[in-house]
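Can't paste images in this forum, so I'm doing it all in text. The chain is below; anyone willing to post the predicted C-alpha cells underneath?
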Amino acid sequence: MMQTLSIRDRQRLKLSPLQVPDRLLLGPGPSNAHPAVLHAMSLSPVGHLDPAFLALMGEIQSLLRYVWQTENSCTFAISGTGTAAMEATIANAVEPGDVVLVGVAGYFGNRLVDMAGRYGGDVRTIAKSWGQVFSLDELRAAMETHRPAILALVHAETSTGARQPMEGVGDLCREYGCLLLIDTVTSLGGVPIFLDEWGVDLAYSCSQKGLGCSPGASPFTMSDRALEKLAQRKTKVANWYLDANLLGKYWGAEHVYHHTAPINLYYGLREALRLVAEEGLAACWQRHQTNVEYLWQQLATLGLTLHVEKDYRLPTLTTVCIPAGVDGKAIARQLLTEHNIEIGGGLGELAGKVWRVGLMGYNSKPESCDRLIAALKQVL
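Text version of the structure:
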C-alpha cells in the first residue's frame, strides 16, 4: 500500500480572481499597452513550432528591422526582458581578453561595465556626469587611448533621460577596427534610430516602453561584422540560453527547437510592432516629440525645471528636478495612491534629485500630460 503523507495547508491561499489597479504608467517603464496589444496577448496559445507561430516570428523579424532601420539578417527577439537582450549582446560579442570601452554617463552604462567584466572583457571606461553626452572628439580620444574591440554606448540613458548623438560614431569605430554596440531600450519606437546608416553592429531593446507591449520579448540584432566576430570566437559563447548561434537556428529557416517561447508575449510584440508600422515611423517619432514638448511646457508652468539640456533630451523620458524642500518619494507615492499615476524616481547619482516621467508608446498623447499636470498641481 502506498504511504500517504499529510498535506500542509499553511501556504494554501483562498483568493478571488485577479484584479489589478487601473494605473496610468508614466514612469520609466513599463508603459500602458494599446488595447489591441492586450487583446492579442489574450488569444489562445499555439505550439512554439506551430506553422502559424513560425510565420508570426518571421513577421516580428521583419518589423523589428523596420523600426530599427536595418537589414541585419540576425534580428529577432530574446525570450526575456530588456536586460536579457543586453546580456545577449555582451555574451555573443565579448571574448575573454577583449578590450571593451564603455561610455558611462548613467546607471545603464555601469550595468554594461559589470556585464562585460563578467564575460572576461578587459573593460575600460570613459565617463561624463549623469545627464551629459559624449562628443565625437571625446570618443575619438578614448578610442586612440584604449584601441577597443568593442565600443558600447547607451543611446537612450534611462536613468538620466539623455540621448547620445550617434552621427559619426560608426565611422569612428570602423576607422579603429572595432564593433559598435548600443542600448536602445528607451529609444526604440519613440526616438529616431538608423542602425545601418549609423554603422551600429549590435543593438538591443525591450518591449514595454516605446513599443507599448508587455515586458518579456526583447529585440536583439547583430550586423554581418558582429556575426563575423562571433564565427571567429576561440571559445564558446558562455551563456547557452543567449547564444545567437543557437537562437539563430530557431528563428532562421531551419526552426530548430531551442526553448519554449513565451507565445502570448510574442503575440503582443507582433501587434505592437504592427501598430507602429501602421502609424509609420516618421509619424510615430513626431508624435513622441510633439507630446513631450507639450509636457515640457506644462511642467514649466508649475515652476519645474528639467535635468538634461534641451538638445539632448529624450522624447520618451524626461528627468524633472525635484524642487528644494520637496520629498520626491512622498509626491510619487501620493500620485500613485490618490491619482493612480506612476512616475519614477532617480537612480544612482540622481536618487532623490529627479523624477523620471515616461511618455512612451500608447501613452504618448496630450491626455496623459494633462492628467499628470492636473495631479501635480494638487500634490505639490
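Residues 281-301 form the longest helix (21 residues). The chain has a mean pLDDT of 97.
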